Amino acid sequence: MFVMEKHGVYLGPRLRRLRRDLGLTQAMMASDLDVSPSYVALMEGNQRPMTAELLLRLARTYKIDMSALADDSTPELLGRLQATIKDPIFTDIEISPLEAADVLSSFPGFAQAMLRLYTAYKEEQFALADQRQVAVDRGGDEGADPVADVRRFLAARRNCFPGLDAAAEKLATAVNDAGGLQAYFMQRHALRVRRIPAEIMSGSVRRLDRHRREVLLDDCLDTASQNFQVAQQLAYVEFDDEIGKVVQEGSFSTESARRLAHRALAGYFAAAVVMPYKPFAKAVEARHYDVEAIARQFGTSFEQAAHRLTTLQKPGQERIPFFFIRVDAAGNVSKRLDSANFPFARHGGGCPLWTLHQVFSTPRTVVTQWLELPDGQQFFSIARTVSSRGGTFGVPRVDRAVALVCEARYAERLVYYRQPFTLTPIGITCRLCQRDNCRYRSEPPIGRQILPDHYRRTDAPFGFSD
Predict the structure, then answer these.
(1) Residue 289: inside a domain
(2) 272 in Cβ contact with 165 (< 8 Å)
(3) Do 157 and 249 fall within a single domain?
(4) Of 16, 173, 184, 239, which has the fewest CB atoms closer than 10 Å, so is most exposed?
(5) Greatest pairwise CA separation for the chain in angstroms
(6) What is the pTM of this model?
(7) Do 155 and 111 lie in a common domain?
């Protein structure tokens, strides 16, 4: 909110935004407010304050609420700007937090331009890393990969979209006041939510029937999945344009990638409605990141709660940054999310020494593990199986394993933390792991010459030259 000073308040960027939203020139606004065009220009440049009289005249003339001129995004933008200048690329440039605040206050357009440019820079960094990985893997497909595009888009933003979180939190309040998601749909959109047999859904879990004014759900879905699907449909019905604007900020090589990004953000919005940012962030600290307890509190699944934990990087309200991965029994990665740029966030997850691949033998049990990469970095991991589909006899259940990983320095904040502990040496993937004595290795690492075994057969699958 703005505060009226003795001689007025400086609202330059917000006045300029309002004028442009109204489709007016400076001369047209000056005529409406009975001031000179040069005075409007000076106010927009923060060289003249807006007096209380002029502010009231503005509100009466254009029939706007004065709160429309308030800028609640300043703390968020300042947090993002201060986080940006901590990037190693700016190491040799001394920029104090006070200077960052001055830039945002005096030159808000420049600050937003810098944030947009920095986000684009991070996306290109991830794209270059992926291209290099394809090149060294020899024979990899260098064509467009929509999944990789979306992962870069999310990673460049640390899988956090404060604007969507804010909108979802307001919507969650309205949904609660209405008596729940289904009641809100009926009151706000005259749409009835119905559960119908899977055979009638013809392979769909959710379908919007505008003709009959119904949202149809597969009746095999459990409660957590039903709520999520209804919330996601609400995201499409009520906030599709806002989600589309966020997608437009990304650099996608194909239409498939854009559609996947749109779907990912609709899912993000749905999770933010079911698990609003502030209450969820407060709960995770109170419960010491006990994923099962948090899931019960918000009526979600273990996977949904774990996924949501990767999004808690809102500037000024950050929680522990996590890496999340989901694999099937064959080791195929179907979901990979990162809020901290972990080294195995794009290509890792395939090391058999990681308990992620062993929890299928102990279903629905949380397994903890301390991990150490070849370069000495240490992490803490929790892994557990999750299930989807099923729900009735004859419908196959899909079992997968999920893991949450954080840096070792955060581990003592988790309910899973125990002493003493033993570090398990793992690699990012066999192709990128240079450990020469691993009995679990499936292929040789890049850049190492394999030794012949005419005279000696090593204990490990491959022997390497120095």
Answers:
(1) no
(2) yes
(3) yes
(4) 173
(5) 96
(6) 0.74
(7) no
